[in-house]
Amino acid sequence: MQSEVVASRSADQKDSRESRNGGNPQLDAVSLAIIEQLQEDGRRPYAAIGKAVGLSEAAVRQRVQKLLDQGVMQIVAVTDPLTVGFRRQAMVGINVEGDVESIADALTAMSEVEYVVMTAGSFDILAEIVCEDDDHLLDVINKRIRALSGVRSTESFVYLKLKKQTYMWGTR
Question: pTM of the full predicted structure?
Answer without folding.
Answer: 0.70
